[in-house]
Records
---
Amino acid sequence: METKQTKQTKQTETKKVDWLITLLPLGLIVVLCILFFFKPEQSNQVLSQIRYVFGDTFGTYYLVIGLGVFLLSIYVATSKYGNIVLGAQTEKPKYSFFAWGSMMFTAGLAADILFYSFSEWVMYATDPHIAELGSIREWAGVFPIFHWSLIPWGFYLVLAVAFGFMLHVRNRERQKYSEACRPILGKHTDGMLGRIIDLLAVFALIAGTATTFSIATPLMASIINELFHIELSRTVVTIIIILITCVIYTYSLLHGFKGISFLAKACVYLFFGLLLFVLLFGGETKFIIENGFASLGKVVQNFFELSTFTDPERTTSFPQNYTIYYWAYWMVWCVAAPFFIGNISRGRTVRQTILGGYVFGVGSTIVSFIVLGNYSLGKQIRGQMDFIAAYEKTGDLYTMIIGVIRSLPCAPFVLALVLITMIAFYATSFDSIALTASCYSYHRLGEDETPNRLIQLMWCILLILLPIALVFSESSMSNLQSVSIIAAFPIGAVIVLIVLSFMKDAKKFMEENEKQRKK
């Protein structure tokens, strides 16, 4: 029988839960899932129309926020604010640089990095904008690096130090987006405006999860069919994979940061092992290094032009189809990943967090796109394989990627390695997302407190429902992108508000410290 103390503990736990933030997103997901299951065509049409309004009409909005946040990250890291320690001012980092970098990298990228590293240059090679700029060899490898490096990680790192400052310096117990806006919003943080911000954040988190899971998991299904020579429906296999991945990341999450750290380090070893194998044994080592280095140079040389290109005459709509989507994609991921990075950055200075994040996060990302992308690009340029024709014939990037992996030595081994690495990426990424979402379900949560396991389990299950519905409805790549573009529109304004709030609060903190020193 339940004791009186046990009942009181359960009642206290129930009162801590923010039921509006927990149940309203649950209801929305259920409604969306029903719509995508029973009205797939109509749902995809509506998504496409809304995406056009936000992505095409207001596209510059995303570009301005992206460039602005990146420039601000450099200013914050190199200014007096960079000296602030995220914790007690004498505190040392909680995790080693490798463990910290591994958790940050895997939490921020998921398995998408492998899907896009293999395939992204092909999408650009078939776009008329590349013909406007020059040759495929010169430019197809440039945009993957641009779209996955400085500006995307700038989003993460500026918000990570803002959340880290809020959690470890100001010791706030409300681990929510609205709390990071308190220095500007004041008492309105606890009112309707704060609730709206938190709901927008949860919806954005769900949208980012749905986009990520829906885009890359079909590749895992294709790999399984290829490995075992079976012809099961990709949709069915994809849904099974999502369920298996959910079990893995749920198990890891319920074992706390120790489980997440172990999985993250294992994922990084697998990831770099894959890159090393392709680099050394793929037969394109020289082309990978030389063309990768040249592409990196073009990104640096043309960075501001690429960041501000809007194609006002819509000759190709390249920024609307790609750059604006990517910035939106990273914005919706900014709900979970920066909270997680800020949480594990205790003891590091603001400067160490931002610059260390750029070194580990951007460095690892660039290496992935240079190695995996230039391997297949090299085969294409030399005329040994025609991946562009294969993609244009079927419009299927997943089949094209299988063709790339087949061209490698020990192809079955590489297929298995890619599959395991993708599962590890997904598991570590969704550990951080589920943990952040679980924290959102509480009115207040102390730094040393963790969400109830049932709440964590609920979010682990909740986060896979919409991706399953999107996969089931066979949404196109464009419509999957639309989910992020739509959700990112309001969250972009909140990101700006959080950054300005951090700057205001950090300035106040430094003034307080200066006064104490003078005493």
---
Amino acid sequence: MEHKTSAKQWIALLAMSMGVFMGLLDVTVVNVALPTMVTDFHTTFTNLQWVLNAYTLVYAVSLLIMSKLGDMYGRKKIFLGSLVLFVIASAINGMATNLLVLDIGRGVQAIGGAGMMSLSMALVTSNFDGKDRGLALGILGSVIGVSTASGPLIGGFLIEHFGWPAIFYVNVPVGLIAVILTMVYVNETPSYGKGQKIDLMGMLFSALGLFAVIYGLIVKESKPHLSWLNLQVSGYLIGGLLLLIIFVIIELHVDSPMVNMKMFKRPHFIGIVIVAFALGAGIYSFNTFLTALMQNYIGYSALQTGIRQLTMSMWSLILGPIVGILSSRYSKKWMISISLFVGGAGFLLVAHAVGPKVSFETLWPGMVLMGITNGMVNPLLNTTGMEGVKPSEMGMVSGLLNVFRQIGTTVGVVGLGLVQDTKYENYLNAHLGSVNMPAVAFSGLKKALVEAGPFSGHSIAFSTRISHAPFAHEFQQVVIRAYDSGMRTVSIVAAIIVIVGGLAAAILLKNHVSSVEISENNKNVE
């Protein structure tokens, strides 16, 4: 007998979508506020880095913990508490008068964001049935895609008209509405933790391991010239991996583990995890480089960049509900795989478009294909990842997918950044010597360009002082072509990442996974 979905359930979806939108928007929205914050706080970009890093680190570390607490004690309770925490921290951030308060506030805000994000999919799954569940997860997937991609647009508008505190204050009224709607309309899930002990050691080692790995990657990103073998980088990465190995050993030997490691014995689950990682490392991390291209080299403002990036983000809004409907009729495996191949083609089109005369007119075809990939894969990732999962583990599966997507994004930003830095410097080394300028100017400018990196090279080359030099045009052309060399390679590497994700989906995913099959697999493992 088909269950009819009520208006109450769709309002519940709205409440959960509002929370997810705020939590993910705050991952990217602060980027466009940094120039204004530099002036207001009388500081440097380096000192402001923790406004970004505090959120990224605490968010990634908290995802699994909040997922487990939701599974054990009720997902609505933890989701609602996360919403309240997020709203309070947002208000504190808007009122912050110094960086220490803002950094701490961002960390607290990230705990709330992680709770909302990690439990939203599981709550939607438990609040909807039948075909409407696929549609609801599709809509949530579209919200995830839009929120991640719309940071420059929303942030640019708020900062331009109201100042940087507005990017935090806007969360207060939206969050309060979400709190009320959640309390009234979202149904609670059973508490599966009755009689279980909290896996404190598992939580501790998972948090420390993820923190160390992501912090090591952040150090490498901020200091790209440090060797991977430097203790500032390798110490954290190796230490983090060892802590995660200890975490796995603990989980295999405790009665009520934080994460059921049997899930990783299923090729289907490994495939969906690889897709989540590829989506983060390819699509999401590339937004950083695309924004830098449009702002630093083409010359668009933050708001103009955000408007043009609607070419990508609008597809999440359009395709999410459609994908939710199609997923009940067609093979999700092949929809995911083909969509990732489409994204690979989009990256290759962007690589072809990058050059001295690059503009939005040459970039948009590739951006459209990348947007279609995001709009298709995100909702499918949710529905496919939840297939056959026991109700007691839905929160944890949601958390794992988000962890791998977040780690993918961090690895992508660092890895693609290193690729760009290497190609940029190699081009400068090969061609800067051909510019007819004094030896003193050559050594000083080359050092400045390398230290500033490809993102800031344009501002040096086109500064007022350099623009009046007799060698200005020749010098500027070398800098532009050096950046283009790096950006083209970044686009090609991103294409390879999503194509590998598409191949993994084609090989590892199953067209349909039933709960009976999962139960049988778990018995066999035991």
---
Amino acid sequence: MADTVSYVQYETYEGGSPEAERLVFEKLARDLMRVQLRNKSSGGAQRVQRAFHAKRVLGVENARLRFNDDLPPALTQGYAQPGAEYAALVRLSNASGIPGSDVSPDMRGIAVRVEVSSEETHDLLAANFPVSHARNAREFVAFAKAMAGARTPWQKAFGLLVKLPLAVGWATATRMRRNVQAAARHTVGSLARETYWSRGAYLWGDAGPVRYQLRPAPGGAPAPRPDRHDPDHLRHELAERLAAADVEFDLCVQRFVDEKRTPVEDGATEWRESDAPVVPVARLTLPRQDITTAEAASAARRIEQQAFNPWHTTEDFRPLGNLNRARKAAYQASAAHRLGTRFRAEEPLRNTVLGAPLRAVFTALNRYVPWHRLPLNAGLLNLVALRQVLRRHNLIDTEIPEAPPKAVPVPETVDERARTARSYDGSNTDLSAPRMGATGATFGRNLKPVYRPDLFDTPNPVTVARELLHRRAFQPATSLNILAAAWIQFQVHDWVNHQRYSLAERSIEVPLPPGSTWYNTPGGPAENVMRIAENRGLERPGKPPVLFTNTTSPWWDGSEVYGGDEPTARSLREPDGAKLRLEDGHLPMGSNGIPLTGFNENWWLGLSVIHTLFAREHNAVCDALHKEYPKMSAEQVYQTARLVVSALIAKIHTVEWTPAILATKAIDISLHTNWEGPPNNWLHKLGLWLVESHSLTGIPKTLPDHHNVPFSLTEDFVTVYRMHPLLPDDYELREHHFGQRLEALSFNDLQGGAAEALARKTGLTDTLYSLGIAHPGAVTLHNYPRALTRFERDGEIIDLSVVDLVRSRRRGVPRYNDFLAGLHKPRLTRFAEVSADPDTAALLKDVYRDVDEIDTVVGLFAESPPQGFGFSDTAFRIFILMASRRIQSDRFLTVDFRPEIYTPLGMDWVARNGMNSVILRHCPELAAMLPRDASAFAPWRPVLPVRGSGAGS
């Protein structure tokens, strides 16, 4: 096999490196999808067509490619062996992206897929002109954009004479126009009598670069004169020709001589036969057949579902040159767009034009007046503008790109099961990028990482935690109940999880303040350092270790209930059934006393009741589906119920939990707009129509949109969701009939293995009631649960408040002041600007040397939040960016959120239900206690104990 060195010498990467070039290609791929949409609207097509070669003239599956017996030894490489014969698919087409008449001026093309084996194919693509109109990918896409949607002669002339020169310059446009016009003027009477050139260079094993041609084999009937009155002349001519005889082409190659005469990077320069002789190597045969039969039509339709790409080959035969390298990403995007696995929505011109000044106005205004102090409609419009700014500047892709491109021996196909059901590990949620958001994908970034090993222990994180985070006296969040605290942990377990080494494998040593000691393991010795198990990161030579993988999938797929892999998911189900296993209505118990469920780390009573509730909800959906659709299999019922429950969880979080913790009118309207579209307010609708019309329907009715960055959740998102202060240290369990106290407990009494036994003893109804009437802690300084400051986990004793600080520093999350600036807020110059409370500002000054050292978590907790907010406005900026992204990137919450996938019953279930109805379905006795005009996360009505009954003792 040819090694990398043997062919990289022929190539020069735009931007100086494969990685830089790849970024250019990704933008060009998006541009081609935009071209497809323009062509669709202009061509009157009901669906997206190919960006080029949209009209198929012929498609056959029974062609053969046979290499010559006298194949030269130097060209005997890989699958190219003397006498070797392979099956092939062939597609002949007109080059335009808009299907038109066969007699219109146009170029023609051929695509051949050589099927060597089930593990190896080779796609050969060529056009009937010896050179490309474009030297490189930029020119290629510029031409496509200039001609997008052009059908009439004057539209084509405007594209060639005005749009193209503006894009590439007059001289380049003239050369491109000359090539295109020369090719299009060529009269084509039969596609069987045309010569097709690859135009770009390809590796041919150890023989080095070649360009190939497909020439009509000697003999055969000459091409007739075109019938100018027949728009399908070329197809009809081929039908007659194939009905009478085989159609044959000779596959020929020209070998590389030198970069001047046979350039690799320049697709617009011809390799002259006088410099590089043409050598026949194989014959392609389209056998005699009737292409007008139903069987032939079926084969042609199957070929239309194929995605031809020159990168469907082996590394020995990989494409070479800038134009060819761009084709991998571009053709993949174009094919996925055409086949409905990747999406592109055009922004209306009015939104494009008005969006920029609107963002500029609000950016300037927010320096003096924050969004939450503006009148309601202005504040709502401000939030739209802010989200647009964050989408443009605060989504950073951390996945290591494929650069340079790699060959794909067998074209990837979509797993048909994944079209209608969520996968176990999150893969195939985006069918065009199967590993996007799957377990093991990297955490993204909203801000560029700041990796400062010299500041890991400055100031000492133990001192910071003890002085600023540890709870002194419980500070309640009186607008919420403890179910709100359990809910967010339930959600975070669905979205994010970093893998850790064991303490013995690899640990971080945090020095303790003078005179302090710490027991790092149960029964271990006192030490003068606090040891914390280190995260497993991706090692990249020469780069800071700030890249980590997510061991769960970040999609809203209910993996905390259902599991993140198939063995776990199947083990949680009833044997041969659709329901989840329950024991008398409770989660099945594991051998360690912790229930069996999708994700059961950091287990406590609050998680137990939420998990139990949604396991029961799954089973209720299964019963309803089975009754409504008795012919559905158990697997179909299970997968549909999972879709329904996952979407219901997403809805509850969007329109109930979030407005509960961010209790303002603007947020309530915004979150409901995200899910179901704006309220019936003409001013609000007009604002969205002018600046972000996609929001007029609610995200579930839009197309998936990753905003040009593959979906992931981010390290910054993990940081702002450190909401441990929500957990109280002390709890009361009460029964719901008379309000009688059952037990008073500490957090340690209801976490870990003790939680499930307590949940079963108390019962789901009374446990929900007990948590529903009690307040969680406020997310602020000096309110970190005492129980979590000396907490046993996985054989180590940790202070979780210290761990939060250490993790953020070592993962490269910027410190608070840099965090503010990165989220487009003014930098701070004084401690008094962090918090309106002078005592807090003074304490911050005692702990930190200057404001630039303040830890992000500390700054977020210290910040004075907007009225009604349960956490800071800075954390909220990450939230408004990522909250809508979790919905908009997910096809199961957008284009595939439809009755055909969910069933009509499933869609109705999501529409009609919320947290209150879920609770009442499984615990109807709680109807009188739930809030009348608020979500189930607001405080419930407590039942007052009856005097003299012993209640409340």
